[in-house]
Amino acid sequence: MRLELALGDLTAERVDAVVNAANSSLAGGGGVDGAIHRAAGPELAAACRELRHTDWPEGLPAGEAAATPGFDLEARWVIHTVGPVWSAGQAGRRRPLLASCHTRALAVADSLGARSVAFPAISTGVYGWPVDDAARTAVAAVRSAATDVELVRFVLFSDDAYDSFAAAAS
Ligand code: APR
Fold it and tell me: Which of 2, 20, 65, 115 could bridge to 104 as Cys pair (CB 3.0-4.6 Å)?
C-alpha cells in the first residue's frame, strides 16, 4: 500500500472513497462532515438516514464505519466513521477506537472494491484529539491493516496537521 500526505480539501479528492469524520447520529455536522455534505449534496443526508433505518438503528458507534455513495463528490463513495472524543484520562482506552476508525474504514473499502481512500485527520477538530497523537495512531493503524487498498492519502487541512502526519509517517 502506498501512503501519501496532501494539504487541502478532502472533498476535492479524486479517489474511490473519502472517509468522513462523522458523529454517531450520521446527521451531518460541521468540520469535514459539513464540507462533505455540502459537496455531496442533499442525497447524502438521505443516504445517511437510510443507514440509520437499516444497518445502524442505534447510530454508528465510535470506531465503526459505514459507506454511502458519494453523489456529487468526485469520490464514488463516502465511508463514514466516528472518532473518539479526546479525554486525557481516557486516552489509553479510547486510542484503540481511533485506530479502529482506520482499520474498519479500510475493511469497508475492501468490501466495496475501493482501491484508493482519502482520510481526514479524524478526531483532531471538534473532538479535540491532539494531532501528533492522532497522526501516530492513524499512520500505525493504516500501515498495519490487512487490506487490498493500494493508496491511502491523508488530506490535512493545516500546516500543523500536515507536519504531524509527516513526522508520524517518517
Ligand atoms: N478537508 C480536510 N480536512 C478538513 C476539512 C476539509 N474540508 N474541514 C475540516 N478538516 C479537518 C479539521 O481541520 C480537523 O483537522 O478535519 C479534521 C477533523 O476535524 P472535524 O471535522 O472537526 O472532525 P472531528 O474532530 O472528528 O469531530 C467530529 O465534528 O463536524 C462534526 O459532525 C461532526 O460531530 C462530529 C464532529
Answer: 65
